[in-house]
Fold:
Amino acid sequence: MTMAAGRQEESGSRPAGTGPALLWTLASAVVPGIAHLRTGWRKAGWTILGGYLTLVAAAVLGALAAHGDLTMSAAIAVQGRWLLTAAGISFVIAVLWMTVIIHSWVITRPESPGLPARLAGGTLVLVLCLMVATPAAAVMYGTHTAYDAISSVFGPEPDAHDEIANRWGDHQARVNVLLIGSDSGGNRYGVRTDSMMVASIDVEYGDVVLIGLPRNLENTQFPPGTALAERYPPPHGYTDLLNEVYQTVAEEPQELAFDPTADDPAADTLKGVIGYLLDIDLDYYALVDMKGFEGLIDAIGGIRVHIDEPIPYGQEGAVLEPGSRLLTGNEALWYGRSRIDSDDYARMGRQGCLVKYVAEQAEPTKILTSFQKLAGAAKKTLRTDIPQSRVPAFIALADLVKEEGDMRTLQLSPPQVNTAYPDWKEIQRLVADAIQEQEDRQGPEADVKEPEDAPSPTPGGASPTGGQDADPTHRNDNEVGGSTEWQDYTGLPEPSPTTPGRQVGDDAVSLDSLCP
Structure:
C-alpha cells in the first residue's frame, strides 16, 4: 500500500501536458534538481541542487583565486596530474548532468505520451545533452593535448637522491639553463645549433646574465676522460665549429654521448661540453627548433620588438622596417636569424633581445588563453630536460625575472674573444666576472651605475660593416641558395664598436640599453 501510494503521489505531481514537461526539463538543464523538486522527488532534488550550487561556488572561488594569482594558475596548468584530474572531473560532471536532464524528462513527461510528445521530448533531451557534452569534450580534448605535449616536451622526473633535484631553493643561488636554437633545414644535413646561449638566473633576485656563444667558435675542448676527448684530443682535435658538436654526437650517440640513455643524448652532451668550456654547472637545457619557433610566437599573438635599422630577410627582398613592430612568428624568426647585410654577432644581439622581449610579453593570461595552441606548437618545437615537477618553479622564477630582475648580456665575440683560437681560460674569467658583477649590484645597499661612456649598441638593426671578425681563417655559412660557402676573412678590420648588436668590453651589458 505504501509503495502504491508513493507512486500515486509521484504521478499526481507531474505537470499537466507535454509543454510544461518540456519547460521543466529545460529548466533542469539550467538549474539541475528543480524538476525533481517539482515532481515530489524532494530528497533527490535537494541533493542535486545542493551539489550544483557547491560546484558553482567552487568555480567562482577558483576563478577569483586564478585571477588573483595567474602565475599559480599557469603553474597548475602545466602539471600532468592536474590536467588529468581536470579531464576526469569534466567527464564525471558531464555524465551526471546529462543523467539529470534525461531523468527530468522521464519524471515530468505525461504518463502515456503520444508520438509527438516522445519526439519533442527526445529532441529536447538530445539537444540539451549535446550542449552539456560539447564543452566537456572540449575540456577533455584540451587537457589531453596539453598532457601529451607536456609529456613529450619535458624531461623525466629525477631520482629523489639526484643532486640536481635537490639543489634549487636554499641550496642553490643560481640556476643555469642552456638555450639552444637548432636549424635543421631541408637544404642541409643533420641539425646545427646556430644559436647557443646560457641563461644564468639568480633565484632570489630574478637577475639574469645571458651568455651568448658564437656558433663559429673553433678549437672546442672536451672534458677529460670522455669519449669526445679521446677521439678529438687537444689542442686541435676537433676541427669543426661549436655548432656542429650536436650533430657529431647525434650520429654516434652510443659511442660519443655523455649519457646515451638521455632523452636527447646530443643535447645533453652539448650541455656538458658548454658547461665545461665556461666552467659553470649547467642544470638544464631547452632546445627550440628555429623553424617551429614561429608557431610559439603566433600562439601568444606575436611579439613586439624595437628595430633601429631595416633588417632584410628571406629570398624575395622582404624587410623588417625600423620602429616598434608587432612581429608575427615568421617575422620574429627572421628577426632572430637574419644575417643579410649583417653578421653573426649582430644576430646574436638580436637573439638576446628576443629572449628579453618574450620574457616581458609572455603574460600568464596569454599562456592560459592560448594554452592549446602553445601545447601543440611546443610539442613540435621544444625539447628540454627540465622535469614537469620543476615547471611551476620556473614559471614563478620567470615572473620574478619580469617584475624585478635585471637582464644583462655577455657576448663571447670579437674583440673580447678570438673565435678561431679562443682562450678558454680568459672566456671563463669573462663569464665569472659578468656573474660576479651582477651579484655585486644586488641588495638594497647596491647602487652601481652604468659607466657614462659605455657603448650603447642596438641589436635591432643590421650591421653596417657586414664583416665578421679579424680571426684568420674565419668561416661563414652563407644563407644564399641553401649552399655552404667557406670564406676567408683574413685581414678584415675589427667590427666597429657602434655596429648594432656589438658588445665591446669585458663587462656584461644591460639588455635594457641594448633592447629598448
Q: What stands out?
A: The longest strand covers residues 192-202. The CA atoms of residues 100 and 180 lie 53 Å apart. The chain has 19 helices and eleven strands.
